[in-house]
Every structure is written in structure tokens, then in C-alpha cells.
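Note to self: keep these together.
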Amino acid sequence: MLLMVSTCKGFLFFNSDEDSIKEEIFRHGTISTYQDSLPAKEAYFVEIDKNIYIKDYHKWVENFLIEVNGKLDYSIDEYILAKANPGFVDSLKKSDYYYLKEKGIISYDPKEGLFLGKGTKVFIPDSMMVFSIKQDILQTRLDINIPEFLCRVYQYKKVIDSFYIRIGKNEQKYLAMAGKVMNLKTRTGEGKIVRINKEPQFINPVDNKKYTGTKRDDGIVTQLPNIPWLETELDGVKYGQMIHPTTNKSTIGKAASNGCIGLRESDMWALYFYAPVNTPVRIRYDLKGIDSLGNTIYFKDIYSWKWRKPNKKESAAGESVLFNHLCYCGKD
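Structure:
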């Protein structure tokens, strides 16, 4: 029996025998109590009866969970399901345009990729494993350091993952969407994820026009991905500052957005599953850090804030403007 079966599309799945499940769960960074919960009477597998494509992922997982939870005396959500089936995230990450290009494939619509093939067996975790995953999620937080261009994921006070990012430009610009000149610097503060947008509209804030395609770094125009965006609330204020994918990988590590925090597509899929609503977030501006060898390192003062904490006007980037369900970072 297979937990996730290999397909001709080359997505990663793994054997469902006890030893293989334990090995995969351990390899993906979960805590040892997972192993103690397997196998259990409540755990079982559901076989997928048709191909599921990435464009249908959000609706499929919603319906799948309704069906599964109707049979359980405990409940699971999308995050628990993904943690119990690491192949989910692997499959979604492989829709990244630049990942596929490295494999010699040009994808004109990332939503058309295969998520799960017919015959895939999805693992439904037992109640002990569900409890363990929930504890992990409750102990997860995001830490973003602007001049380092880095987003760290902490769990139990330990960094378990990290992603390079792009940040807001060091300039002011008139945005037709806002109807005024806006400071484009990424805001700092402490808060949480307050909303997840699974059906974003793409609107260029400069001219306030909607767009459906994007020009990639290589000049090829493709459709936009359906990767969810995370909205932050910082120090009690919702500015509409999002964490979302960028379709231009070359802008990672640069001040290139209109204020939002951008990740490459594969990294944004991974971050999404770490950060449900209410996940704590800290966005800071620290020019000093520690490298992997324990040495002190210094980062470029992108916003000329130097060693001081930015004042409210600088950090808040002017007046609060919230564009619900929109990306106002501009055409990537």
C-alpha cells in the first residue's frame, strides 16, 4: 500500500508501511510523539478516485475535509492534513515556474499542474498525531528581518525553515489605487496573520488596472499562480501589507515591491502551510546578525534607518490603506 504513489509527472510520494511513515515524518521535522502514535486504530487512508490539478486544490481540500471530518470524532484541517502528508507541499512547490524551467519545462499556467494523481492514498492521522501537530502549529511564529531579506520560521524557539524575500522600495510614489503619494517601505512591527486570501485579484496600484498575466524574468508571459497570500496586522493595525509570491525570482533579495513581502512561488507554498490565521509575526529592522559560524555580520542599511528604531511615520509608511482581496504590489 502507498501513502502517496509515484506518478508519471514525477511528484514525490512515499510508502505507507509503518517504518516508511515514521521515517518520512521524522525527516520532515516533526516531533517524536508522531512516531508513538503510529500505527493507531483511528488512522486510515483515503484513495483519490481522479486526478486533482493545482487549479482545483483549494476547493478539493475544502470538500475533502468536510467528507473526512464527517467520519471522525475529532477534526482535522488543511494544515494538519498537509503535515501528515508531506507529499502535498512537495507537489505544490513543484509548480514553481523557475523550478520547472530548470527541468526544461516551460509552464504557461502554473495552475494546470497535477497536484495528486488518481489512485493516490491520502493518510488520515489518528487523534494522537492530530494533537501533536496542533501543538506544533501553536508553537510556530514568523520572524522577518528587512535588511537581511530573510523570513525565518520558528517552532519551539528553534528555526525550522527560512526563506529569502524581497521587500518594499526605498521611495515614495503616487499610487492611483490609493489616490495619493505613498511611502513604499515595508512596515515593521509585531502582530499576527489576520487573513488568508486564496482568491486574490491582481491590480497594478500605479494605474489601478487589473491584470491576469505576468512577464517572467526570461521575458515569457504566463498566467498567475493561485498561491494564497497572508495579510499581517502589526501593532494592532491592518495596513493591507501582504506576504505573497512574486513571479519574478530575480527580485528576491532586493527592495523591489510597493511595500509587501514577496517570496518565490515554491517558498510561498511552503510558508502558507506554516502560517494559519493567528500565527505570530514579527517584522524587524536589525542591521546586525549572527552567521552559521557564530560570527557577527552586518547588513546594508537599505532604508537609512541606521541603528535606531524607525519612527511611526517611517515604519507605518504614511496613512493606513487596506485593499481587501487585492495585491497592490504592482505587476511583478
